[in-house]
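Moderator note: this is an archived Q&A kept for reference. The question asked for a predicted structure of one protein chain; the sequence and the answer are reproduced below.
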Amino acid sequence: MQLTVIASGDGPLCDAVRKAGARYALLPFPRCMASLGDAGVASVRDTFAVAARLARAMPDIFAYVHRLRAQLAHEAPDVVHSNGVKMHVLGSSAADGIAPLVWHLHEYVGSRRVMRPLLKVRAGRAAAAIAISPSIADDARATIGQVTPVHTVMNGVDLQRFTPTGPSLPLDSVEGAVQPPDGTIRLGLVATYARWKGHAVFFEMLSHLASSLPWHAYVVGGPVYATSGSQYTRADLLHQAYAAGIADRVTFIDMLADVPAAIRSLDIVVHASTAAEPFGLAIAEAMACGRPVVTCGHGGALDIARLGPGVIATAPSDAMAMAIVVGELITSQTRRLELGRAARTTAERHLSRQRMIEEIVKVYEASSAPRDRQSVP
């Protein structure tokens, strides 16, 4: 199988492609397209504003589709695989008559007020859609109807990198960190500083834990978005921790390159997102590292919890329920180790990258058109 990646901008993806030795082509979005999006748009007024920007960008969009179509014709692929809502819509025109188009759905498209109707209109031009979790698949079917077959292929984790054994990080060696006493159970929230990642729920959960229990908490993450309104600052989170009365038992760790080592330094991983996760990569990575996970039970997080033992799901945003579960795990090493081993086994059975690749290839095979295509002008 030969892979060619067409990227709308240089960055980590292209770095990974170069490192893997695969072919790639850069086809940058015009500025008006790169900044165009409806994620988080909730009001009618904002919806009309995005629609107006979309209308003004139409000349650039048509020009981009023409360039993308020419690039695809040059590559002559057997299948076109699109990622991202913009590329789903653009690819439905650019790939038409060249090769079957497969949409890879990584988000809840039903919540996209502008892109949702566009996807529904273009759905007939996609041979198939791949959803990264059952909840994403349900949302897609409700949004685009039955015109396009939707296949659930859950994301995979590198099980050779994310393992129970290996180096761990001295989390308490960061500047200003509190050195917990021996026997302390380390609880961790591994997430970006996005506002929906549940930091406030995590801190509230910690406030419900008995002060006599031997625990210390770690927030591993950092700001990743260009827009400040979509995420907290470190100062914001410190304020939340002080307001919850547990700041002296929380250490903040910047987002690290060696995520597996950070996870292996924790005894219990908590996932507290207040909005439904499309998948829940942090959960899968913690499972692969053999760590028990306590999560809010909705969206992709609940889908992962249903794969097998190793993850305990509570009601969404129920800090008290999470505290009860975490408190029980703090007091039982046997239970923690049992859940950790089960989590690794579940990850090996259901969350390997090899399994994901094999399932995606099956979608390609089912969607592929005969090779004797008509020539493309």
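Archived answer notes: Residues 58-75 form the longest helix (18 residues).
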